[in-house]
Design goal:
- The structure is a single chain.
- The protein has 303 residues and is mostly helical.
- Helix content is 67%, strand content 0%.
- It has helices spanning 9-16, 20-27, 32-41, 45-53, 58-64, 70-77, 82-85, 94-100, 106-114, 118-128, 131-137, 140-148, 154-161, 166-177, 186-194, 198-206, 210-223, 233-243, 246-252, 258-265, 270-277, 282-292, 294-302.
- Helix 5 (58-64) crosses helix 22 (282-292) and helix 11 (131-137) runs antiparallel to helix 17.
- It is rod-shaped, with a radius of gyration of 32 Å.
- The N and C termini lie close together (7 Å).
Length: 303
């Protein structure tokens, strides 16, 4: 362990109630442990008490090794393995985890977004785009997938078909059945739609012009927002990658639940992961050091 503690020796001097002159003359270049042992052997009661607390007192460790200094945190963390570093991640605040996302390239962010559960991805997309923009940007085959998904109730779609101008619905029915449906009202056109065979019904939905298809998808999506999860993950990431830059994407990812952010941050190399961890609360950092890595604390004291 290579943490420099010289800047903290004044604090140790104060704890031991030793004059600066005596301290400098007797203990120059000595480790914390050796200084405390030397004083304790001479009957210094402060040193005796300090020796008992050295590996368990969070406040003492924070002050003695100046852990409020992110550089000192980093010097400790860089000695740890990837597995050891990951012990800190669950204790970090979401805002600090999110800052770590800036270390990833845009392409890597897209890949990680694709691997999220659909709900997490859609929530991120909602931060970046309006519902209207999402539907507008979706390719035609994605709109078809949305409309023909077996997870939706047919009667809900038929209700929303009534919001499409009658002439467009009539055109689609004529295209599918070969029969004219001019001058029919929306309700009757919707009823005719519902009487189509399953295959004809799906073909009819796909036959709407892009504008009407978008209108139908948007109307359904606003009433049932969970249906936005029916679009493919890569359809979302292609839109995000094309329309937004990395800072905007990272900001939007604040809505992702902590467990998924934590998994993302674990993919950073050790040096960058260490930098992210230095931002965590200093007291929490010290507690984890003492509780999980007492051997590292002991090693610090020996240096």
């Amino acid at each position: 362990m290579s943490l420099t503690i010289d800047s903290n020796l004044e604090y140790l001097q104060t704890l031991l109630h030793i004059s600066r002159t005596t301290f400098e003359e007797k203990y120059a270049n000595m480790s914390v442990e050796d200084i405390i042992e030397a004083e304790a052997s001479q009957g210094n009661q402060y040193a005796i008490e300090l020796a008992q607390e050295l590996t368990s007192n969070v406040s003492l460790i924070m002050e003695l090794f100046d852990l409020a200094d992110t550089n000192n945190k980093y010097m400790i963390l860089r000695e740890m393995s990837s597995q050891q570093l990951q012990a800190f991640i669950p204790e970090m605040e979401e805002k600090d985890l999110q800052q770590g996302l800036f270390f990833f390239t845009q392409d890597k962010l897209m890949k990680m977004l694709e691997e999220l559960p659909a709900e997490q991805l859609v929530n991120t997309a909602f931060e970046l785009f309006s519902r209207e923009e999402i539907v507008k940007f979706m390719p035609d085959e994605q709109l078809d997938k949305f409309l023909t998904s077996k997870t939706k109730k047919k009667n809900k779609i038929l209700k929303h078909i009534q919001s499409i101008p009658e002439e467009y619905v009539a055109q689609v029915l004529e295209q599918i059945t070969g029969e004219s449906h001019e001058n029919m009202k929306s309700f009757d056109l919707s009823k005719k739609f519902g009487q189509l065979s399953p295959l004809e019904y799906q073909d009819a939905l796909k036959s709407f012009q892009p504008t009407q298809k978008q209108q139908l998808v948007l109307s359904l999506g606003k009433e049932h927002e969970e249906w936005f999860q029916l679009f493919d993950a890569d359809a979302y990431t292609k839109i995000i990658n094309r329309e937004k830059q990395q800072p905007e994407v990272v900001k939007a990812m604040s809505v992702i639940e902590p467990e998924y952010l934590q998994n993302m941050i674990k993919e950073l190399p050790n040096d960058l992961l260490s930098l992210v961890i230095t931002q965590m609360d200093t007291e929490q950092f010290a507690e984890i050091l003492i509780d999980r890595f007492p051997e590292l604390v002991a090693d610090l004291i020996l240096k």
